[in-house]
Amino acid sequence: MTAMSTVALYQGTDRYQNVTNALTAIAGDVDWASKRRILIKPNFTSTVIPLAATHVEAVRAVLDFLKPRTTGRIVIAEGAGLRDTWEGFRNYGYLPLREQYGVELRDLNRDAWVTTTVYDQHLRPLTLRVARTVVESDLRISIGPPKTHDTVIVTLALKNLVMAALIRDERGPDGPAALAGPTRSRGSTLQAIARLAPRRVKGWPLIMWLKGRLIRRLIRSDKMLMHQGYPVINLNLFLLARFIPPHLAVLDGYQAMEGDGPNHGTAVDWRVALASADWLAADTVAAHLMGVEVQEVGYLDHCRRAGLGQGDLDRISITGNVPVAACRRVFQPSPTVEQQRRWRDPRVEALVTELVGGG
Fold it and tell me: Which of 15, 166, 185, 265 is deepest in the core (most CB within 10 A)?
C-alpha cells in the first residue's frame, strides 16, 4: 500500500504568499541540498492568453523559496505547444528573472532529446522524443494553474510537465534573438482550423487519423502525436508519468480555469495554492477541489493503480490554513466532457493491468 502523503493547501488574497506558504509547509519532504539540476516547468499552453499560463509571481515565489535551500543550477524551461516559447517568456514577464535570480530560460522544443515508447490509436508502439533537460533534472518542479481540459477532463501538475517535455520541431533562433515579434506557427494554424470542427466529431477515429497525417506532413510535433484518442492519450500520459514524473508539484489556483480549457475557458477566482512532494497526491486533491475524483480521470486512475503516488484521499494529509470543504468548488467541465469520459477500453485496460502487475 502506498504510504501517506502530505499536500499543503493555502488560500489568501496574495498569490505570491499563497505559493510561499504552501511550499514552506512541505519543505521538510524534499532533500533540497542534494539537488544539482533543478527544472522549474511553468505552463505556456498559450503564449498570448495569460489565464492559460503560469503567472510569473508564482514562479518568483518558487525561486525565492529555493534560493536559501540549494546551490544547484536552476533552469526555467517550457516547450510551448503551438507558438514560440520565447514569446511566452516575453509576454508573461519572465525575461528579468535571468538577471534577478541567475537562472537560465530554455525552450524545450529546441533541446536535445532522448526517445521513449508509447502507443498509437491502434496500440502499436510509437516513438516520441523527450527533452533531455527534463529527463536529466534531479528536481523537476511543475508549476501551473489548475484547468479543465478538452481531452483528459483536467490538466494539473503531471500533464503540465510531460506534455511540454515532448519535442515540437519548428526551429529558429534561440534566446533573445527570437524575441523580435510574435510568430504564427503551423501548429497554431492547425489549432485554429481544428476549433472550427464540431466538438462531437473531434474524437472520431477518422478525425484522429486525419489529424495524425496532417501533423506528420506539416510539422513534427510529438506533443500532438500524443493525441491518439481518449483511451490512448490517458494510457500514454500514464507511461510518461513512469518515465519523467514531477518531483514537486505546485498548483497556483489564484486564478484557475473552467469550461473550455486549457486555453479558452473562463476564470475562476479561487485564491488557492497547493504543493506536495507527491505529484499524484497534489493532483488528486486539486481534482477533488474542482469536483472531479481521481477515478474519473483516466491517466490519474492508471497512476493511482500503479502506485506512482498517493491517489487515495483518505491517505493524504492536507495541511494549511483552510478546510477542504471551504474551497471545494465544482468547476464547469469542458463541453466535450461526455466524450472524454469514454477513456475506458478493454485493450488499454489489459495493457495497464500488465504494467501495474509488472511493477
Answer: 166
